[in-house]
Amino acid sequence: MTGSLAATLWAGLRSPSGRSGGLLLVGLLVLALAGPRLLPDPTGITDLAAGASPPSLGHPFGTDHLSRDVLARVATGARISLAIAVLAVALSLTVGTLAGLIAGFAGGWLDALLMRMVDAALAIPRLFVLLLLLVVWEQIPLPALIGVIGLTGWFGTSRLVRGEVLRLRSEGYIQAAAALGAAPKRTIFRHLLPNVLGVILVSATLSVGEVILLEAGLSFLGVGLQPPTPSWGIMVLDSRNHFSTAPWTLFFPGGMILITVLAVNLMSDALRAAFDPRSA
Amino acid sequence: MTSFRLLGFLALVGFAWPVGAQDRRDHGSIVIVIGAEPNLPVPALSSAKANVDVASLMFLPLTRPGKKLVTTDEQSFEPMLAKSWTRRDSLTLVFDLDPRARWHDGVPVTSRDVVWSLNRARDSAAPLPYPLLMRDLATVTAEGPKRVVVTFRRAYAEQMYDAVFHAAPLPAHLLDTIPPARLATSSFVAQPVGNGPYRWVKFEPGRQAELAANPDFFLGPPKLDRVIFVIARAAEAQLNLMLDGTADAIEAGLLPRQVTSIVENPSLRLLTQPSLSILYLLFNQKAPGDRTKPHPILADGEVRRAIALGIDRHALARAVFGPYASAIDGPMGSASWVRRVAPKLPNANPTLARRILAERGWKDSDGDGVLDRGGLPLSLRLSYPGSSLARVSVAEPIQAMLRSIGVRIELNRLDGPVYGERRGKGEFDTEIAGTNLDPTPSGLVQSWSCAGIGPGGTNVGSTCNPRFDEALNRATRAVGDANSAWKAAIAALQADNPAAFLFSPAQVVVLHRRYRNVSVRADLAWSDLWRWSVDPGQRLARDRR
Amino acid sequence: MAAWFLRRLLQAAATFLAVAALLFVLMRAAPGDPLSRLTDDRPMSQAEQQRLKMLFGLDQPIGIQFRQFATAAASGDFGVSIEYYPTRVNTLIGSRLPASLLLGATVLLVNLGLGIWLGVLQARRRGSALDRWLTRLSLAGYAMPSFWLALVLVALFAIKWRLLPAAQMTNPLLPHDASWFLRAKDVLLHLILPVVTLSTVTVAATMRYQRTAMLEVLRLDYVRAARARGLGESSVVWRHAWRNALFPVLTLIGLMLPMVVSGSVFVESVFAWPGLGSLAAGAIMTRDYPVLMATALLVSAAVLASGVMTDLAYYALDPRTRSR
Predict the structure, then answer these.
(1) Hey, which of B66, B290, B381, B432 would disulfide with B76, CB 3.0 to 4.6 Å?
(2) Cβ distance C208 to C119 under 8 Å?
(3) Which SS3 state, helix, strand or coil, does residue B453 take?
(4) What is the pLDDT of residues A63-82, one digit of tens each?
């Protein structure tokens, strides 16, 4: 099983969309890891009076309204935004998938209980829960931020996965597997998971962009990371006031979010195709 | 023949003239962007800006301060509902109402309206802060239908201001059967009847409030006949409504970088003038969250002075607001008259700041770039509300400036209500405060004197300097020329450095180029709107009927 | 069926009550003082604050506050707004709900129509140039941060080319006697940009889900059997296959439904759309508890109702789930 899983993943990565997605992700990682070492201080205000200047040779992405290098800020922001995007989404996908599988597979009262809890969680605006963090943390550490974003984001995924499981059940996959004497665990991993992967991956790509902006929204409420630490979301939200005169300060961080989501998109497309060649 | 021709010509002129005049009788419209719903547009019922702005077009005060807003000089006030006023003695002011003044329902404005309204605003059932603001009024009585006599508890220079500024008269004939506490929920609020240049037409929640010219306005019919306040809360939506041509005017909290897109727009122009708003870095002199203990760092006045010297307020104002802000020397907006008599604060001097800190024992003993003393680093938290564009913009430059004198600032961008809550409880080291002041400097009592600590006041930084209190007391009681007393009071405040005073952003009004005769006031931006007109050559389709 | 449905409804009602209590506690536990922002930067004394607290009942212990709220809310009264005192919350919500319903329903319709149709089309023409292009478009579509998209759309269509209005729902200067046709046209013009912004991401998602689901169904035996029986292609696709490919899309639409009620807080703010979303955005910024509570309850009711409806649709669509 593990061997075939690795082979499938590898096949997915080698497909055209897998390769372009992978390339983009590697590019982003290089930017995040090497960028901050090579570029000027992203928080350093060199010349307050100079203001924003458009992209040039010295500053390929231009400078922002406080004369800071946008490329350096984008690179530093990449560390934070990518970490949040990847880890928080991975966390919420894992929890969401597990909950969805259990609910769909077990059915009965467990299903009802889990799904009513998910209903309740979906019905409460995430914001109120996250605002409470201010009571606990004055300046929230990044791992905690990731954990909290991840743990409050899985409800939708679990509903989608449960829906898929119900559909597969109705199509007789599970009955068939059970009739052949397969253990429930085996049924889940062998038969169900590959089939619900499509839905999980789509849900992942949707969450990545959302989570990057959510982090920014939180920092605006004082819950998230505090300035001058740059993240893409904060840069996007901050630059909306300078959009009409310094559009590059919005364009580049916004573009990075777009590229990240696109890369995740391409990868997920490739993976799904590898797991289920007929749907490509 | 000739006479016939002449007759014909005269006839032509005679017939053509009224038509032409009709056409020339300035029609015009204006769409103004406001940030919230004007749900209570009645004077002295709400102090929310949207309500005050809309009410200022419908309700006139008795008199108002002249354009320079010198609140201590009653001769500089302009007649409004009261056509004249006289002083009987140092405690008594007499107002004579303009006999032409009428309510929008046709009933004349009488002394009964004024007496009822002022007494209602002073009533303990009235919403705060009005009873507090008018606490020095002793009695308000009528002498005949057109004369009002106001007496005061003590002699002071701002009697006129206190009597007229806070509560514009309401129509007693429609309201005196309603208990004061129910006024805000009465049907009057949904269909207010005023006496000013504009009357209420309708309010569409979430969208707009519409006013129409009052053709019988006793000071002359307004030239713009349709005024619409359109509601948009988000700053980008407000700006976009101006840029796409939907709206004609906005009193904007804009940054210069946004302003350039307006300057480049051929149909808009900017009007800037001194304002009553200020920005300052407030020091908390008590321990955060515990007002019984002194602040470990900021209780020392010399440290406060050093930090204030470490901030280049001129550079800050220029960088964030460009030409649209000016540095201030105390808690006074650039439109405040006290500013003209106040002593100047010294300019930034990082070398001196470092020396002062060294003298107070703050050294960088561990070489991390941050000063320390006895193991305590010179590190302070700076809170500010993330919703305020101006304060967000200065936070990072302040952090950078103070880093260079060895002071570490941890930024704490907070949600508005959280910021407000912590501010009220004194849970902060330093904060970027922004305030829109009243024209009078006497409000300094609440925010900067010892008496302002605790329930009655707004002295959240717990500054308490008896020398300043004494000087301020002398200034607010001064009769006649109060200037030198105010100068001494401000100097005493400056010497104590309760805050690092930064700058006063200009009042920026963006408007369409077609308006003529434009005048905007720093206290109530739109209250002169009825004098504006549309340049006939630039009239748009929406200005015709 | 009736018993199942009744049980499901009871569960939803119980969940709703739990959510209401939880929301109330969360809201009061969250830091922030609703009174501190009432006066537009004018400092407020503690005496004034105390008096306002009494006015809004905020000086009472939270248990009593909740009892008062619950008793009033049970009879449909959500109290008085703090920011817009003395306007009643019900009045505020009533005046904002239509705008949100209009925006949300339009976006939902675009999704149900365009999104599903394109998804099915892609599945039918799998591997064709059309499929590849639509895939690329949908990938780009939901990579788009809607925030960013809204600003760019406004900058181009409203400000640069002046084709569409930038914000609000109506032209403020429309004459009082304007015909219903003019009014409808005016609202429609204002509707375009917010709908395009909200639809770009959601339609892309609907398309992807529909395509995936459809592909899985199209290869199943009974679809092949239907084809073999010589049924027309469109009958096979829509009558037989699509019915079963609706599951994930239904769940997705169920997740979108609450948006019909609440609008999108962000998009409504950027476009100053006079709906519940911008009302809620303001209420968050000022901690207007009564308004926040009412809007949050409306949204949770919508979420729970859409959950019930999704389950009901599953039940109706698939005979086999009925055996449970």
Answers:
(1) B66
(2) yes
(3) coil
(4) 887 888 889 898 988 888 88
Residues of A within 8 A of C151 (CB-CB) are: 240, 243, 250
- Which distant-in-sequence residues (6+ apart) come within 8 Å of C273 by Cβ? C99, C100, C103, C167, C168, C169, C194, C263, C267
Cβ contact (<8 Å) for B396 and A131? Answer: no
Nearest CB partner across the interface for B386, out of A52, A131, A222: A222
CB-count burial class (<10 Å; 0-12, 13-18, 19+) for B314: middle
What ipTM was assigned to the predicted interfaces of this complex? 0.89
Order the strands of the B249-252 sheet from edge to edge: B198-204, B208-213, B226-231, B29-34, B249-252, B507-512, B268-273
Kindly compute the dihedral angle of the four CA atoms of residues A179, A181, A183, A184, in this order, to the nearest 10 degrees. Answer: 0
Interchain CB contact of B474 with A (< 8 Å) = no
Tokens of A254: 């916004």
Task: Give contacts of B239 with chain A, Cβ < 8 Å.
Answer: 244
Instruction: Give the model confidence (pLDDT) of C251-309 as tens digits.
Output: 777 777 776 666 577 788 889 999 988 888 888 878 888 998 998 888 888 888 888 88
- With beta carbons under 8 A apart, name residues in chain B contacting C168: 207, 230-232, 237, 241, 246
Q: Between the CA of residue B240 and those of A241, B264, B492, C146, C227, what are the distances in Å?
A: 11, 14, 46, 17, 55
Q: How far is A122 from chain B (nearest CA, A)?
A: 23
> Encoding tokens for residue C120?
């099915």
Query: Tokens for C167?
Result: 């914000």
- How far is Cα B29 from Cα B196, in angstroms, rounded to an integer? 17
Sole residue written with tokens 């590059």: A248
Chain A residues with CB-CB distance to B under 8 A?
43-45, 48-49, 51-52, 65-66, 131, 134, 138-139, 219-223, 226-228, 238, 240-246
Chain C residues close to A259, C-beta within 8 Å: 143
Q: Answer yes or no: do B411 and A44 touch at CB < 8 A.
A: no
Find the helix or strand (DSSP H, E) in which C298 lies: helix C289-317
Which residues, other chains included, contact B469 with Cβ-Cβ below 8 Å and sequence gap of 6+?
B449, B450, B451
Q: Which amino acid is at C232?
A: G
pLDDT in tens, chain C (324 residues): 688 889 889 989 999 999 999 889 888 888 887 877 665 556 677 777 787 888 888 888 888 888 989 899 889 899 999 888 888 999 999 999 999 999 999 999 998 899 999 999 998 888 889 998 998 888 888 778 777 788 889 988 998 899 999 999 999 998 888 899 999 999 999 999 999 999 988 898 888 888 888 887 887 777 778 888 877 778 888 877 887 777 777 777 777 777 666 657 778 888 999 998 888 888 887 888 899 899 888 888 888 888 888 788 777 776 555 444
Closest CA to C209 of C125, C304, C112: C112
Residue of C27, C28, C38, C41 to mutate, interface with B, max B Cβ within 10 Å:
C41
